[in-house]
Amino acid sequence: MQTKFNYLIIGGGIAAYKTLDLIRRLRDMHVSVRAILTDGGAQFITPLSVASLTGEKVYTDLFSLTDETEMGHIRLSRDADLVLVAPATANLIAKIASGRADDLASTTLLAANKPVMVCPSMNVEMWLKPSTRRNIMQLEADGVTVVGPASGDLACGEFGEGRLAEINDIILAVKRSLGVGNLPLNGRRALVTAGPTHEAIDPVRYIANRSSGKQGYAISGALHRLGAETLLISGPTNLGTPEGVERLDITSADEMLAAAEAALPVDVAICVAAVSDWKPKHLSCQKIKKGSKPMLIDLLENPDILRQLSRARNNRPNLVIGFAAETNQVLENAKAKLLAKKCDWIVANNVSLETGILGGDQTEVHLLTSDKVESWPVMSKQKMAARLAESVAKYFTLQAS
Ligand code: CTP
């Protein structure tokens, strides 16, 4: 197996001692680790203990002349396949979010051109402070992966969110990022529909629903990161294809259905697309001219892709998940959709304009299955996608056991 290379930046927090176990686990996976210990980190663990486990020199100070001549901070950041920050303190997170570079750790992070993953660890009040929330959102918007924190007893004696994520969860996230080891959705095939469909009226006009495609794209990326072979069937959007995902562009609902049926069999199908419910009965080959009479368009109902997949006689996906975009009575309407369309799970969200969910980067959803409802807190669409993909992985793990 090709050796991957990981930079581990150890911030100042009581959880720093847990990184010794993290290093050991990474080395077991044949991942080389080079560590940078911040001044704070060095208050909790010694460079010697870190070096003993990594088998490498430990870097501690930007202005150490020998370090700079032997290996400057730019080179430090370039060597890595991944830069992992654990534990990431509120201060270190603030520095990354604002692009500050005033020590070796923050300078390496600013100079990094490889994926960055941070594992926050701090007191619950610090984690919940609006400033930390803003910084975390900024990191996520900048493409940084945030793992954790977990909830539970904190070193300060309080209880709540703020514990360093479990080492197992950090290892899983590193595996995903580096593409090493077994991933929970390895060997599974996934299908995701995303974006709007455009239903042509004439060569220049169409009917469509509002949809940026962000949520569906994020979900396809998250499924791929857990190891699934993922096909994204997308209506027109301005988004780039998530790394590793196969994308098929379509325009209308009919094309989306044909593409989805052709992709079967899959293990999981997630219909996130905002499919137009109607299409014009007649397509005018020429641009329709304005006239004195009011314009009337006869509409036909479009096929319901989620319903068709859920009711497929042959090759029904093992798990079919729909979305319910609602503006009122969110849970009731979503439950009715779950039953009517016969899908297995439905993700409900309130898309009233004042929520800013449509087209925005944040979302707040409820996951409904046949017998329970989980309400998830407000989070980025990326994070929601990761959590949904984890739920899918858990579903298959339980099924296999
Ligand atoms: N959906 C679909 N094909 C359609 C319409 C909807 O696959 N023609 C899927 C969506 O991708 C989503 C779910 O069905 O997963 C619910 O979509 P939504 O627009 O919320 O509901 P509709 O079925 O269109 O019902 P209504 O517009 O009456 O709320």
Description:
With 401 residues, the protein is of the alpha/beta class. The protein folds into 2 domains: 175 residues, Rossmann fold (3-Layer(aba) Sandwich); 212 residues, CoaB-like (Rossmann fold). It is 35% helix and 23% strand. The chain is built from 14 helices and 21 strands. The strands form 6 sheets. Strands 12-11-8-13-16-17-19-20 form an 8-stranded mixed sheet, sandwiched between helices. Helix 4 crosses helix 6 and helix 10 packs across helix 14. The mean pLDDT is 90. Bound molecules: cytidine-5'-triphosphate.
* End-to-end gap: 28 Å
What structural category arises from helix and sheet content?
alpha/beta
Present as ligands are: cytidine-5'-triphosphate
- Sketch the major β-sheet: 8 strands, mixed
Number of domains: 2
Assess the beta-strand content as a share of residues. Answer: 15-25%
Number of beta-strand segments: 21
The residue-averaged pLDDT reads 90
Shape: elongated
Top CATH class of the largest domain: Alpha Beta
CATH-scheme architecture of the largest domain: 3-Layer(aba) Sandwich
CATH topology type of the largest domain: Rossmann fold
The total of helices stands at 14
Assembly of the depicted chains: single chain
Helix content: 25-40%
Placed side by side, the strands forming the largest sheet appear as: 12-11-8-13-16-17-19-20
* Rg, Å, rounded: 24 Å
**What is the CATH superfamily label of the largest domain?**
CoaB-like
pLDDT under 50 segments (min length 5)? none
